[in-house]
Design goal:
Layout lengths: L10 H20 L1 H10 L39 H4 L14 H7 L7 H16 L7 E5 L2 H4 L5 E2 L2 H7 L5 E6 L5 E7 L4 E2 L3 H7 L7 E8 L2 E7 L12
Parallel strand pairs: 3-7
Antiparallel strand pairs: 1-6, 2-5, 3-4, 4-5, 6-7
InterPro entries: B3_DNA-bd (IPR003340), DNA-bd_pseudobarrel_sf (IPR015300), REM16-like (IPR044837)
GO cellular component, one term: nucleus
Protein name: B3 domain-containing protein
Length: about 240
């Protein structure tokens, strides 16, 4: 050890130097250095690749098949609809309108605000003459009540006090004592199904007014007041 160690080196450095020299001798004995150089200098040859086989897809020939028919109809002759309904067949004609629809579609011209207020005033005057034992209210008709939508909302305070708390069938009785059933929606506080039939049958129009008198828990007596058009005319039932 003293012969290998150099002068002025620490024991640690001397041990490290001996380890390095010993590793070099082992590498020379195994010829690792020359083997590494030979690998670097060897020419690179491409690795053989497996050739992919191309799949040749032939165009399929579509053979039309006859339409499927149930076994029950397989032996029956084929129906030719062109013979049953020829192209020159007459079109169906619309059935004529009912008299009530003719009344509903009649026009009376524009309604002024003065005519609307006058119809409401007459309805309130009629209400004041009714028996106070039966609760009542006045409702001015709007476009959404009698033309489009056919939804008639009732006064909220009236519904809270007198109307059922659940959906019910409410009967409307006109001045001729004819009855019409309507659907009362409690959570919306208004009349839906059936009200359109009543309004159309009585020719009610935008601007009219009506007095609703509750003669039974689910029955209204309805009095209709017609609004005059700008020319002063009124439409009678």
């Amino acid at each position: 050890m003293a012969a290998v160690a150099k002068q002025g080196m620490s024991p640690y450095e001397a041990a490290r130097e001996r380890t390095v020299l010993e590793n070099k001798r082992k590498m020379e004995a195994l010829n690792l250095r020359h083997l590494s150089a030979a690998i670097k200098e060897a020419p690179k040859t491409p690795s053989p690749m497996k050739q992919k086989r191309r799949r040749i897809i032939e165009e399929a020939v579509v053979v039309p098949s006859p339409p499927r028919r149930s076994r029950r109809l397989a032996n029956l002759p084929e129906v030719k609809y062109a013979e049953i309904a020829p192209h020159n067949a007459d079109r169906m004609t619309r059935s004529p309108r009912k008299p009530s629809e003719l009344i509903y579609l009649a026009t009376r011209g524009s309604i002024s605000m003065k005519a609307r207020l006058e119809a409401t005033r007459k309805a309130e005057e009629l209400e004041s003459e009714l028996d106070p034992e039966f609760p009542s209210f006045v409702k001015a008709m709007l476009h959404s009540h009698v033309v489009r939508g056919f939804w008639l909302g009732l006064p909220s305070h009236f519904c809270d006090t007198y109307m059922p708390k659940q959906d019910s069938i409410v009967t409307l009785v006109d001045e001729k004592d004819e009855e019409f059933d309507t659907n009362y929606l409690a959570y919306k506080k208004g009349l839906s199904g059936g009200w359109a039939g009543f309004a159309i049958c009585h020719g009610m129009q935008d601007g009219d007014a009506a007095v609703f008198q509750l003669i039974k828990p689910t029955t209204f007596k309805v009095h209709i007041i017609r609004a005059a058009s700008d020319d002063g005319s009124e439409i009678d039932e």
